[in-house]
Design brief:
By secondary structure, the protein is mainly alpha-helical. The protein has a domain of 146 residues. The chain has 8 helices and 5 strands, in the order E-E-H-H-H-H-E-E-H-H-H-E-H. It has a 3-stranded antiparallel β-sheet with strand order 4-3-5.
Amino acid sequence: MNNYKCPKCHTEFLSGTKFCQSCGCNLESEFIENPVCPRCQKTFAGGTKFCDVDGAKLTSPDKLIPKCVRCEKVYSADTKFCPDDGGAVIPEALRYGQMWLKSDFYPKASLGDRFLASLLDGFFTAMLSLPALIIYFVGMAKLTSYRGEDEAAVLFFFAFFLYIIPLVYSFIKDGLGSGQSWGKRAVGLMVVYLPNNTPCSIGASCLRCLIGSLLCLIPFIGWLIEPIMVLATEDGRRLADKAASTQVIDKKLYTNRTGDLF
């Protein structure tokens, strides 16, 4: 077995030792036996902390194995999303900190694709709203008939109940499945929750929709803010995305490309 030196008191210890016998240093957290640079993949002698090529903090080889951020299942380096639960496949060492926040980690979704997905979702929402509208107009027709108020009231209540379905869809749509509304799924887009690189949750989807709806209440300026943010920002994140810590990505490009982090 190899002998190493404690990074604090420099007392020698054997490979596999968890704590220094002299100073009590936690060797599992302070010492890496076979460190590797997560950027350039260069290996170093045990105890080295930073790469002399690019300055990156070194990590253990097992933390560079591509795994699903949700189920921790191991995949090959060319797999980007887990086929079981949709979680991003990212080595543990690259999940946190600034490395995975690089602007080119996720391909920016184009404004055209996002607009098309929005149109499709609008169409789906309209189709979900159609039964409520039909019943509403039937209720309006009942009001013109003799003593039709009671029937109209029942129809109006039923129409209101049915309208909840498209309303709920508009809020939770980006948290469905693998962070894809029906429109985004058709176009090949996906919403990712950036803090842990997982598909957008229903809660984050609701927050995105709420912020977007509030901005739409501001005439003209509110209507232009979000498209301008998509075009002007490097990652295409609008205010609603920043509030919910999400990003709309082009899933096709991300799945097919080979990122420089892997």
